[in-house]
Design goal:
By secondary structure, the chain is an alpha/beta fold. It has one helix and eight strands. It is elongated, with a radius of gyration of 26 Å.
Length: 128
C-alpha cells in the first residue's frame, strides 16, 4: 500500500515537471551581428601556487599574488599539528601530510607553525 502511494506521488511529480518544462519560455536563436563590438581580450589565467614544505626545515617561504590559488603540503617524520595563521590547523604524520588549499585574497604575511614542536617552519607571503 505504501509503495503504491509512493509510485503515485512520483508520477504526479513527474507530470508537474513535464508541465513546467512545457510552459517555460523558449530561448530565441542568437542573431549574427557582424557589426557587433569585438569581445574584450580575456585576462591571462592565473597560475596556481603549489609548494611542499619539510617540517624539519625552517625559514621556508611560499610566495603568492592576490587571486592565486595556493596549495601547501607539509611533510613530517613525526606526528604534529601544522598551523597556517587565519586558515586553520591540520595534523601531519609520516604517511599523511598536512594539506592547505586557499585563495590568496588578502595581502600579508602568514606564519606556518608546528604547534606541538613550537617551531615556525615558514611563512606564506601574499602580495598585490
Amino acid at each position: 500500500m505504501l509503495a503504491r502511494r509512493l509510485l503515485i506521488a512520483l508520477a504526479v511529480l513527474m507530470l508537474l515537471t513535464a508541465l513546467a518544462a512545457s510552459l517555460a519560455p523558449r530561448e530565441t536563436a542568437l542573431r549574427d551581428d557582424s557589426a557587433a563590438t569585438p569581445a574584450a581580450p580575456a585576462e591571462p589565467a592565473v597560475e596556481p601556487v603549489q609548494e611542499t614544505l619539510d617540517a624539519s626545515a625552517e625559514g621556508q617561504r611560499v610566495l603568492a599574488r592576490v587571486g592565486q590559488t595556493v596549495t601547501i603540503v607539509v611533510r613530517s617524520d613525526t606526528l604534529d599539528t601544522v598551523s597556517l595563521a587565519e586558515v586553520g590547523a591540520e595534523t601531519t604524520e609520516p604517511d599523511s601530510p598536512a594539506r592547505f588549499e586557499l585563495l590568496a585574497d588578502v595581502p600579508g604575511s602568514y606564519p606556518i607553525e608546528l604547534l606541538e614542536s613550537g617551531r615556525r617552519i615558514g611563512v606564506l607571503e601574499i602580495r598585490d
